[in-house]
């Protein structure tokens, strides 16, 4: 207790700095994974991708990031066992942030495909199990999180498979795919708008509107979300109407014009991807911070304390700064590097992945956006939509989380004992 | 910070464009035979020799493309069509170009001139073999559309019609082959026996080229069937 009274604000500022740095790292590196498909398919220029990412990552983080943040903050550790030693939790969360930051730095220098989410969860479980006690870990919840890491790529794959199959039967497998594309793509746009609005209203606006005492039933939410979907559809339809068939390019490739119609749709799925990524990954940076803020402000581990919304704002701001300072460069490199995924496939992968991630965000499950997207790409592959997928690379990516968990855990244990010794 | 994140290597290089390039080169190679036959019919061996060189260059280029396709098809690639089918397909495609080179090599080396009375039949026979190869190329050129539609039924049945046309050309080639053999048989007695032997050999290889073109179609059909 005295430690917190004495050094509370030092610890708090440290947590803010570490949390902000993590958010910066997510913006600098991770966002590129989420947006790479759009840039790679030439549906967006790098500049447009960055603008979309900035806006929608922030919106996702601020409006729909609360649930996952709450899980990271108080879902993994069973705080009942350490109620009399709140400083342990503060050290632990700081250690977890430091460990995740260090590990991610090493991984990006080495070029390993590690997941921010897996690192931070591993780190928190690590310090709690070893530094406090094995019972301090809320194992059922951890089990659920780990299960979601298996389920999320599969779910995204199934959705992308279904989406691509629907595109195939509604649009591609017809004599006039261009007209069919113009007729059916607005429905997909509606789905994108509805999805984002629904999650925002069910989960995100809680903490924005709570002060004004506004509350909405599920039906009302669905109604407003449908309205938002319609607005998105109208905007999209306007852009669609400007796409004209280009016989010159069609002579070379009969589907050139059709793909241009899909490119419009892909702008929208890119928005939803950025939104989904922001909503799930911001927690990796600000979840531990939120835990520390709660303890320092009250002096105790209050399970019921409400998270101040400035924490999510800070996370969102960090992501934007990361994008502006470094993400730009990463995205530009990817734009040149990535093998082209045509918009008709890219959209299916992005929509499948973002729907899965947004769903996880609403449930409070921290999952890896990258892994989910890999699952989605595989789903399109199973629908015979992609010429060649490197299974070895897919294997490397999925193996990486097995390595990441002990690495994150080990580092956070080390940092935890160092911090404990210092204070 | 490095950014060689493997995530961006998930998508492998598509083998489809190289397959089409390879078939395009094969068509180039085979079409040169027409000029070669014309030169040999006139016993213009200077011209024939220069066309032969062109044929060899083209055949080598096709070989190079074939090797590259094989190198970039590791077992760990996940593709909408079986890897073995693609490898068989490229082998079959390549055999057509080999046939063209063998014919030109043989005829130039032995300074063979087709007997004047069957020169026209010989040319017509060759032209149907070339037409079959070109038709096989048209079908192979649909591979990217096939992928684009995710192996949609419509595209599959469209390719089936292209393959039918290819089969028809091969059948035509077969009939011309029979007629040509018949005519050569009638002339046989008045020609040097060794010369006749090699004329039959040339007819064989030209017919085999058309057969290989048809086999390209058959392989393609197998690829669609799954």
Description:
The complex is a heterodimer of chains A (423) and B (226). With 423 residues, chain A is mostly helical. Chain A has one domain. Helix content of chain A is 82%, strand content 0%. In chain A, helix 1 (2-40) runs antiparallel to helix 10, helix 4 (86-110) runs antiparallel to helix 5 and helix 5 (116-132) runs parallel beside helix 14 (391-422). Chain A starts with a helix and ends with a helix. Chain B has 226 residues and is an all-alpha fold. Chain B has one domain (15-225): Phosphate transport system protein phou homolog 2, domain 2 (Methane Monooxygenase Hydroxylase, Chain G, domain 1, Up-down Bundle), CATH 1.20.58. Chain B has seven helices and one strand, in the order ααβααααα. Chain B has helices spanning 16-41, 45-71, 83-109, 119-140, 143-148, 153-187, 193-225; one strand spanning 77-78.
SSE layout and pairing:
The complex is a heterodimer of chains A (423) and B (226).
Chain A: H1 2-40, H2 46-64, H3 66-75, H4 86-110, H5 116-132, H6 139-172, H7 177-209, H8 218-241, H9 247-252, H10 256-298, H11 310-337, H12 343-363, H13 369-382, E1 389-390, H14 391-422
Helix pairs in contact in A: 1-2, 1-4, 1-10, 1-11, 2-7, 2-10, 2-11, 3-10, 4-5, 4-10, 4-14, 5-14, 6-12, 6-13, 7-8, 7-10, 7-12, 10-11, 10-12, 12-13
Chain B: H1 16-41, H2 45-71, E1 77-78, H3 83-109, H4 119-140, H5 143-148, H6 153-187, H7 193-225
Helix pairs in contact in B: 1-2, 1-3, 1-4, 2-3, 3-7, 4-6, 4-7, 6-7
Number of strands of chain B: 1
Largest sheet of chain A: none
Please give the count of helices of chain B. Answer: 7
On the 0 to 100 scale, the average pLDDT of chain A is 87
As a whole number of angstroms, the C-alpha radius of gyration of chain B is: 20 Å
Return the CATH class of chain B.
Mainly Alpha
What portion of residues of chain A belong to β-strands? Answer: under 5%
> What distance lies between the first and last C-alpha atoms of chain B, to the nearest angstrom?
45 Å
> Unreliable segments of chain A (pLDDT under 50, ≥5 consecutive)?
none
| % residues in beta strands of chain B | under 5%
Quick one: CATH superfamily of chain B? Phosphate transport system protein phou homolog 2, domain 2
Mean of residue pLDDT values of chain B: 94
């Amino acid at each position: 207790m005295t430690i917190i009274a004495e050094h509370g604000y030092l610890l708090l500022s440290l947590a803010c700095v570490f949390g902000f740095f993590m958010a910066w790292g997510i913006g600098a590196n991770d966002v590129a994974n989420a947006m790479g498909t759009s840039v790679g398919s030439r549906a967006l220029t790098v500049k447009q991708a960055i603008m979309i990412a900035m806006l929608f990552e922030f919106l996702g983080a601020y409006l729909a990031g609360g649930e996952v943040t709450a899980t990271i903050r108080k879902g993994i550790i069973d705080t009942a066992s350490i109620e009399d030693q709140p400083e342990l939790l503060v050290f632990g969360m700081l250690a977890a942030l430091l460990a995740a930051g260090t590990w991610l730095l090493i991984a990006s220098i080495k070029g390993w495909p590690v997941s921010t989410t897996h690192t931070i969860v591993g780190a928190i479980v690590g310090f709690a199990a070893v530094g406090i006690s094995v019972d301090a870990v809320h194992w059922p919840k951890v089990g659920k999180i780990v299960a979601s890491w298996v389920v999320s790529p599969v779910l995204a794959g199934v959705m992308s498979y279904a989406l691509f199959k629907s595109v195939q039967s509604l649009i591609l497998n017809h004599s006039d795919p261009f007209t069919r594309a113009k007729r059916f793509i607005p429905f997909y746009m509606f789905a994108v708008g509805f999805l984002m609005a629904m999650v925002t209203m069910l989960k995100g606006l809680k903490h924005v509107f709570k002060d004004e005492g506004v509350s909405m039933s599920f039906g009302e939410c669905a109604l407003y979300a449908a309205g938002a979907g319609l607005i998105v559809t109208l905007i999209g339809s306007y852009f669609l109407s400007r796409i004209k068939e280009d016989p010159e390019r069609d002579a070379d490739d009969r589907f050139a014009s059709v793909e241009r119609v899909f490119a419009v749709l892909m702008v929208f799925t890119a928005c939803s991807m950025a939104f989904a990524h922001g909503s799930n990954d911001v927690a990796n940076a600000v979840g531990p911070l939120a835990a520390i803020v709660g303890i320092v402000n009250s002096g105790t581990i209050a399970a019921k304390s409400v998270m101040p919304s400035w924490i999510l704002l800070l996370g969102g701001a960090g992501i934007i700064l990361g994008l502006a300072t470094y993400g730009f460069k990463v995205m530009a490199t990817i734009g040149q590097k990535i093998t082209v995924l045509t918009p008709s496939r890219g959209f299916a992968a992005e929509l499948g992945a973002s729907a899965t991630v947004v769903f996880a965000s609403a449930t409070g499950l921290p999952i890896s956006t990258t892994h989910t997207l890999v699952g989605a790409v595989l789903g399109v592959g199973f629908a015979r939509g992609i010429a060649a997928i490197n299974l070895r690379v897919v294997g490397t990516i999925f193996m990486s989380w097995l390595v990441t968990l002990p690495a994150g855990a080990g580092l956070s244990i080390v940092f935890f004992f160092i911090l404990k010794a210092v204070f | 910070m490095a950014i060689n994140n493997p995530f961006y290597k998930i998508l492998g290089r598509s083998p489809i464009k190289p397959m089409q390039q390879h078939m395009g080169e094969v068509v180039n190679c085979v079409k040169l035979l027409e000029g070669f036959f014309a030169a040999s019919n006139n016993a213009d061996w200077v011209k024939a020799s220069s066309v032969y060189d062109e044929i060899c260059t083209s055949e080598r280029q096709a070989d190079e493309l074939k090797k590259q396709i094989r190198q970039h098809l590791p077992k760990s690639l996940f593709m909408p069509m079986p890897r073995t089918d693609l490898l068989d397909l490229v082998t079959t495609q390549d055999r057509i170009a080999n046939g063209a080179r063998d014919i030109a090599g043989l005829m130039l080396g032995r300074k063979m001139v087709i007997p004047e009375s069957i020169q026209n039949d010989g040319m017509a026979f060759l032209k149907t073999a070339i037409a079959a190869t070109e038709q096989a190329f048209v079908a192979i050129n649909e591979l990217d559309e096939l992928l684009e539609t995710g192996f949609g039924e419509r595209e599959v049945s469209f390719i089936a019609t292209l393959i039918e046309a290819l089969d028809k050309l091969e059948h035509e080639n077969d009939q011309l082959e029979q007629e040509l053999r018949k005519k050569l048989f009638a002339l046989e007695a008045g020609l040097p026996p060794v010369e006749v032997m090699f004329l039959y050999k040339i007819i064989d290889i030209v017919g085999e080229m058309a057969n290989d073109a048809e086999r390209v179609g058959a392989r393609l059909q197998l690829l669609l069937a799954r």
